[in-house]
Write a structure and sequence with these properties.
The complex is a heterodimer. By secondary structure, chain A is mostly beta strands. Helices cover 13% and strands 53% of the residues of chain A. Chain A has helices at 152-160, 165-178, and strands spanning 3-7, 10-14, 19-23, 28-33, 40-47, 53-62, 66-74, 80-89, 95-103, 110-120, 127-134, 139-148. Chain A has a six-stranded parallel β-sheet, with no helix packed on it. Chain A has a six-stranded parallel β-sheet with strand order 2-4-6-8-10-12, covered by helices on one side. The longest helix of chain A has 14 residues, at 165-178. Chain A starts with a strand and ends with a helix. Chain B is α/β, with parallel strands linked by helices. Chain B has one domain: P-loop containing nucleotide triphosphate hydrolases (Rossmann fold), CATH 3.40.50.300. Chain B has helices at 40-47, 72-78, 95-103, 111-124, 142-156, 172-189, 225-234; strands spanning 2-11, 14-24, 29-33, 54-62, 65-66, 80-83, 90-94, 135-136, 160-164, 192-197, 210-215, 218-223. In chain B, the strands form three sheets. Chain B has a six-stranded mixed β-sheet, with helices on both faces. In chain B, strands 2-1-4-5 form a four-stranded antiparallel β-sheet, with helices on one face. The longest helix of chain B is centred in the C-terminal third of the chain and has 18 residues, at 172-189. Chain B starts with a strand and ends with a helix. In chain B, 41% of the residues are buried. Classes of the chains: A mainly beta, B alpha/beta. The interface between A and B is medium-sized, with 24 and 26 residues.
């Protein structure tokens, strides 16, 4: 790890490297990484405090191979993690999203959400690893992982409004990568 | 304005339009009526050059331009607008984004005027102005989606408007708001309208000059508004 940071209250942060965050009781971390330009990144978030919560958003646009690893450890009761990863791969490169969320025994009433989506403009070589390690019954867990192309009906719809195919793709990419947490 | 001659179209190897002919002149309102699944919406898709629909033979001319040689966006920029039956929601793309991109083709757009014109359109359609900068149609009701189609139309200033089942999913009060906006636009811009519908209800609010009954991919009968009244009374048989 390059650095670690203790979060006590409400914090909205943008990050630029490998970090470990430690959340204390009732802390709320909003971690936003729009258009992340790193090739590799590992972030670890430890929800150590009761009622601590993390909202995580990452988007990236790439024409080269990239790997993003996110580890979230629910180390106390009533902890919440919401993860959104959005990526667009412009050519045949490989984008990897790995999300490891762990809830150990006894940390009841915790909630985890994972949503990872990759749009491929070329041939697909990308991968999503939506891992959930849960050793407690009384939790809520949701995950979604999709890799695919933009819906052709959306592109047709935008073209009927006068946008070229390239403009339609560009506006969809911008919407997909910049549209959350506004 | 629009001249369709002997048009034959297939989709997934099934023939949908069969020697179809239609001429729409400036400032005219035409309605095409027919039961579901007989090629009404196909016509709008062919005109807007959806490549799922294969033209076997025939011509579609718009002010003497052969639009079968054009792409969807080129047809749109010629001045043909499709208010689609099922307006899609688009994540992260707002009306302001879409219209700014589309209108930037021909001239430099004035962003202040764009937003001010947009706000007036939202007022006219009685739609919440907060939607201007929100994702297109996300969380909208059926009626709001149709209103949004008309707002885009007002901003893009087409010469020919194709309304594909514009009344589906819209209650009567909102349908009147939508129809009033379309009638006003037509009056101010001398636009032509092609209404595609299987219910005659919309024609009470947007009066057609011609009503065409379509069956088996071709027009089987043409009349005036009375034909629509007759269809409402007796069905398509």
């Amino acid at each position: 790890m390059d650095m670690n940071k203790i979060v006590k209250g409400n914090e909205i942060l943008e990050t630029t490297g490998d970090f470990e965050y430690i959340l204390e009781d009732n802390a709320h971390l909003n971690l936003i990484q729009k258009y992340n330009e790193l090739d590799n990144q590992t972030i670890t978030i430890n929800l150590n405090g009761i009622n601590s919560k993390v909202d995580y958003y990452l988007s990236t646009l790439t024409n080269k191979n990239k790997t993003f690893i996110l580890n979230i450890n629910h180390n106390n009761k009533n902890t919440i993690s919401n993860v959104i990863n959005h990526g667009v791969v412009l050519n045949d490169s490989r984008l990897e999203f790995t999300v490891n969320t762990k809830i150990s025994k006894g940390n009841s009433k915790s909630i985890l959400n994972q949503e990872s989506r990759i749009i491929t403009m070329g041939k697909n070589n990308s991968i999503i690893n939506p891992n959930m390690y849960i050793d407690e019954y009384d939790v809520e867990a949701r995950h979604a992982a999709t890799i695919g192309k933009f819906n052709q009906d959306n592109i047709f719809y935008l073209m009927t409004k006068g946008l070229t195919k390239e403009e339609a793709n560009n506006i969809l990419i911008e919407g997909f990568l910049g549209g959350k947490n506004e | 304005m629009l001249n369709i001659k002997n048009l034959n179209v297939t989709v997934e190897n099934k023939k949908i339009l069969n020697d179809f002919n239609l001429t729409i002149k400036d400032n005219e309102v035409h309605a095409i009526m027919g039961p579901n699944g007989i090629g009404k919406s196909t016509l709008s898709r062919v005109i807007l050059r959806d490549d799922k629909y294969k033209v076997i033979s025939g011509d579609v001319l718009f002010n003497d331009t052969d639009i079968l040689k054009l792409s969807t966006d080129e047809v749109a920029r010629l001045g043909i607008y499709l208010a689609t039956q099922y307006p899609l929601s688009i994540e992260g793309v707002s009306n302001a984004d879409l219209l700014r991109t589309s209108l930037s083709h021909d001239n430099k757009i004035n962003l202040f005027k764009l937003v001010s014109d947009l706000e007036n359109s939202y007022d006219e359609l009685k739609l919440n102005k907060e939607y201007i900068h929100k994702s297109i149609n996300e969380g909208f009701s059926g009626g709001e989606r149709k209103k949004n189609e008309i707002i885009q139309m007002m901003m893009l200033k087409p010469k020919l408007i194709i309304l594909d089942e514009i009344d589906s999913g819209v209650d009567v009060d909102n349908l009147k708001v939508i129809a009033n906006a379309i009638n006003k636009y037509k009056e101010e811009n001398n636009a032509s309208i092609l209404i595609i519908t299987h219910y005659p209800n919309i024609l009470k609010y947007i009066k057609p000059d011609y009503v065409h009954m379509i069956n088996n991919g071709t027009i089987t009968k043409t009349g005036d508004y009375e034909l629509a009244v007759d269809i409402e009374r007796n069905g398509y048989e």
